[in-house]
Every structure is written in C-alpha cells, then in structure tokens.
C-alpha cells in the first residue's frame, strides 16, 4: 500500500480538492494526464485514482468514458465536489487593482457576470491551478487567477473575492478507481453499479434491452452512447444504475439486458455519495 491517490492536474486543481475532501489521510499524487493517473494505480505507484466524469454545468468530461473500460481499473467509489470559484491575487492586492483574470476557459465562462461587473478582462490559461501558479510567479498586482481556495493556499495567493461563480449549484462528479474491485455492500446511502454494454443488431434493440430495468423498478441514472474505434457501426453504451447486482430486481434486469447484448462489462459496484441525493 502506498497510501497515495492519483489525480490529473497540478497541485491545487479541483481534482486535488476532491482527493483532500474525500480521502484526507491519503497523499495526493499529481499527474499530467488522465492516462498517467490511471497508470500510476495500475503500476502500483498509487492505490487509488480520482477521475472527474461529469459536471452539472458542462456535462461529461471529454474522453473519460473511452478511458474507463480500457483502464484495467475498477470503480470503488464516487465523490460529488462543489466547485467554488475564487479570485486569487498577490498578497495585499485589492479588487479594484485587478485588470485581468486568468483560468481555464470553462471557469472564465462560469464567472462572466462578476468579471464584467468589475471590468476585468479574461485570459485563458492551461488550467486552474496552473493559472494560480502563473500569477504567483509573475508577481504582477493587476493579474489574478480563478481557482480553488486550495490553490491559493499552495501558491501563496490571497482570496480577494470568494465564490464568484454565476451558477450556485456547479458540482463535479468524480469516480474513484482501484486495481481490484470491491463488491461488498457498504455505505449508508445505497449502492451504485456502473456498466458498459454493446447491443446485438436487432430491431428496437435498445428499447428491448432497457425494458428489464423499467419492469423491475431499477432506476437508471445515466445512459450515454459513444462510438468505439471511430466506427459509426460500433456503439457502446455507458450506464449507471442504482442498486447492487446481487439484489433480485437488479439481477433480473441485468439478465434481461444480457439477452439483447453481445457484451456486458461491470466497471464497478460502489456506495452512492450522500451528495448525489442532495443534488437531485
């Protein structure tokens, strides 16, 4: 056991925040890419990986659903992290001194109203934590970053305006990945099961395949399709359902799904984050 949890991004990124909030006793391990974070777990340099999969404002994280089935890892948990955006500047700088704010393009868009109200120009940075680091290194009082409070702590910046996002419910969902699956019933908020499947080529195949979830009262919280290998004729479906595969209703629904599919892979069985129900 390394007691490390890998994440994509620089120290102070929102993925880093997710690690600190969810596993405060583990050492966060920053990685350059999602693939690097997955490899860190697969190769034993970290025990877990914290990977963002979707955001309540911007939808799913690009490419992540392609990576999960091929990762060789298993989902063992989820974490819903509230994305609070802050204006960070050099110590002692006042808000009226700020002329330009730097951040990832998504965060710049989420703070449009605040920035326009204060006449602050927007400059796109590679990411949120990297923008905070850049502001600290540049040493220019007129330049600020949009990032987490954690990034401010790490790079020695002051929070001169807190929680400035336009949407008050912006939340990112993360999946926790491990080398080995954990099918044990755990947690106090029910279980989730994530799977991918490919349909057999039959008329109304998707309608028939999903019928078992409806007739057995199994709630499917997410269903997405995406092409495999750049082939329009090969489509894989990604689904999240409430419940454990051993529950009779879920088992019956999965049996019916199996009849209409050529391949089913369970990516993970894990406890639902309590904030899942709060967000709904």
TrEMBL record:
Enzyme class per UniProt: lyase
Entry-linked Gene3D superfamilies: 3.30.70.260, Periplasmic binding protein-like II
Domain of life: Bacteria
SUPFAM superfamilies noted in UniProt: ACT-like, Periplasmic binding protein-like II
Record-annotated ACT domain positions: 194-271
Chemical reaction(s) catalysed: prephenate + H(+) = 3-phenylpyruvate + CO2 + H2O
Pathway: Amino-acid biosynthesis; L-phenylalanine biosynthesis; phenylpyruvate from prephenate: step 1/1
Pfam families: PDT
Domain Prephenate dehydratase positions: 4-179
Keyword Amino-acid biosynthesis on entry: yes
Essential for prephenate dehydratase activity (site feature) positions: 172
Entry's EC annotation: 4.2.1.51
UniProt keywords, alphabetically: Amino-acid biosynthesis, Aromatic amino acid biosynthesis, Lyase, Phenylalanine biosynthesis
Keyword Amino-acid biosynthesis attributed: yes
GO cellular component, one term: cytoplasm
UniProt-recorded Gene Ontology molecular function terms: prephenate dehydratase activity
GO biological process, one term: L-phenylalanine biosynthetic process
PANTHER family: PREPHENATE DEHYDRATASE P PROTEIN (PTHR21022), PREPHENATE DEHYDRATASE-RELATED (PTHR21022:SF19)
The protein's name in its UniProt record: prephenate dehydratase
């Amino acid at each position: 056991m390394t007691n490390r949890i890998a994440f994509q991004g620089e120290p102070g990124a929102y993925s880093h925040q997710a690690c600190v909030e969810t596993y405060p006793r583990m050492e966060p391990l920053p990685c350059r890419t999602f693939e690097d974070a997955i490899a860190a777990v697969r190769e034993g340099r970290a025990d877990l990986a914290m990977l963002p999969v979707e955001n309540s404002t911007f939808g799913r994280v690009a490419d992540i659903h392609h990576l999960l089935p091929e990762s060789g890892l298993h989902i063992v948990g989820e974490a819903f992290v509230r994305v609070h955006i802050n204006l960070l500047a050099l110590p002692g700088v006042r808000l009226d001194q700020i002329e330009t704010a730097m951040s990832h393009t998504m965060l710049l868009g989420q703070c449009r109203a605040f920035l326009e109200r204060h006449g602050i120009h927007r400059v796109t940075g590679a990411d949120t934590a990297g923008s905070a680091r850049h502001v600290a290194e540049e040493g220019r009082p007129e330049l600020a970053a949009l990032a987490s409070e954690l990034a401010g702590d790490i790079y020695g910046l002051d929070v001169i305006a807190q929680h400035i996002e336009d949407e008050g419910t912006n939340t990112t969902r993360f999946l926790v990945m491990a080398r080995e699956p954990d099918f044990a019933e755990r947690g106090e908020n029910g279980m989730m099961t994530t799977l991918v499947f490919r349909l057999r080529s039959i008329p109304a195949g998707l309608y028939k395949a999903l019928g078992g979830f409806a007739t057995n009262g199994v709630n499917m919280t997410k269903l997405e399709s995406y092409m495999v290998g750049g082939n329009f004729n090969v489509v894989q479906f990604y689904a999240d359902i409430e419940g454990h595969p051993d529950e009779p209703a879920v088992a019956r629904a999965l049996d019916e799904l199996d009849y209409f599919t050529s391949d089913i892979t369970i990516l993970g069985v894990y406890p639902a984050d309590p904030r899942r129900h709060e967000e709904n």
